[in-house]
C-alpha cells in the first residue's frame, strides 16, 4: 500500500500515458521508497528491470545486466564487452516487445558507473540516438546517491544536458504520513510517540516498517538501534558509504555540525573540520544538502551576520548523540534513560529540527501560507542594549513587514513560562528589534507539543502552534 506519494505517482502515470517517450529520474536518499514507488505504480507492466550492484566491477555489472534481460524473457548468448553493447541488447529486447508502452526501470543507476566504464556515454547514446526518437519508451532511472544523480545527469554538460523530461525528488514522509503509515502497520501509537519516532528516524519509510506492534516506541528504538543484532545498529556507516564513494569528509562535516546546535558558518566549518577551502568543500556541502542531511540557513539582509549550515537529518543526529556514546553496550539504553536528563537534553534539539522539516504546516497554522516569507535561524552574539546577545530558533521574515519570532519547546504537558524565561523572551524580541532597526512588527510565536500554560507570564505570546498543527497534511 502506498502512503502519500499521490503527486509522484500521478506524474509517473501521466508519463506512461504520454504520446512520446519519456526519461524520468526518481531520486532521494537511501530507504526513502523510490523502488517501492515505481514497482507499486507499474507492477506487472515493467518490460525490463535492473538494479546496479554495489562495489561491483564492470564485468560483474554487465553479467547482472544480461541476467536481468534473461529474466525479462530475452535469450542472451554472449556477454557484452561494454555498456554500448549492453544497451544494444536492451534495444533488441524493446524492438521485439509487443507491449504498447515499454517501461524500462534501471535502479541504483550510480552503481553502474564504475571507473572507466563509460556508462554515462552509453546511456546518452541509448537515449539521444534511439529511445527519444520513439514514442513507446518510458525510461525510469533511480538512485540513492543523490549527488551522483545531480552532477552526472542534471548538470551533465554533454549529451544528457536537458534531456531528462521529469525529475521526481522523493522526500521523506511528513509526520502526517508517518502517522498514517504506523496505523497501516497496526501500531497504536499516540502522536507524542509518533513524534518521538520521527525525532529518531525521520520520515524514512523503511525504518518505520521495522517497528513491531506490541512494543512501546522506546522498546522498538532499543530493538532496532541498541540490540546486538539491531537492524539499524550499523545503518550510519552503510548510509554514508552507499551515498558517497569517499565518505570520510562528509562524515567529518556532519560530526562537527552535530556538536554545534546553532550551526556553523563556512569559515567556522573550515576551522573545525580542517578541510581545505575550495571546490571540493563546496561540492561536499552541496552534496549533503541535496541528500537532505544538512541545511543552509541564510540570515536577514545584514552583512554583519552570515548564514550557517545546520545538521537536520534526524537519524544522523540521533546516531551521533547516542549510539556512538553507548560505550556500555546497553541493549535497553533508550528505555532505561527515557525519563533521564540524557534523553530530555536531546528532545528539545530534535523537536527544533522536526519543526524546520514542517515549515509549511507551521505557516498554515499561522495563516500565512499565502504570504511570501523567508525562514532563518539567527545567533546574535553581540550585546544589545540590555548587554546580552540572543539565539533565535526560527525567524519567519514575512513580506508584509512582519516577523514571527518562533521558539520551539518540547514538553510532555503544556509548557510553563516562568519569570526568568519571560525575561529571556523579551530579550530576544529586543535583540531582533535592534537587528531590524525597529522596522518590522514582531510576533512572538511558541511552537510546543501541547500548548502554553496560561499563568501570569504567558501573555507575551501572540501566536501558538502545537504538534496537532504539525500533523496536518
Radius of gyration, taken over Cα atoms and rounded to an integer in Å:
25 Å
Low-confidence stretches: none
Q: Count all strands and give the number.
A: 12
**Strand proportion:** 15-25%
Helical amount among residues, as a percent range?
A: 40-55%
Write out the strand line-up for the largest beta sheet, numbering strands in chain order.
Answer: 2-3-4-1-5
Number of helices: 21
Described by strand count, sense and barrel closure, the largest sheet is: 5 strands, parallel
Secondary-structure content class: alpha/beta
From the 3D coordinates, which CATH architecture of the largest domain would you assign? Answer: Orthogonal Bundle
Structure overview:
With 473 residues, the protein is an alpha/beta fold. It has three domains: 6-169, Rossmann fold (3-Layer(aba) Sandwich); 174-357, Arc Repressor Mutant, subunit A, CATH 1.10.10; 360-470, 3-Layer(aba) Sandwich (Trna Endonuclease, Chain: A, domain 1). 44% of the residues lie in helices and 15% in strands. The protein contains 21 helices and twelve strands. A five-stranded parallel beta sheet has the order 2-3-4-1-5. Strands 8-9-10-11-12 form a five-stranded mixed beta sheet. Helix 20 (419-435) links the parallel strand 10 (402-409) and strand 11. Helix 9 (191-201) crosses helix 16 and helix 9 packs across helix 18 (341-356).
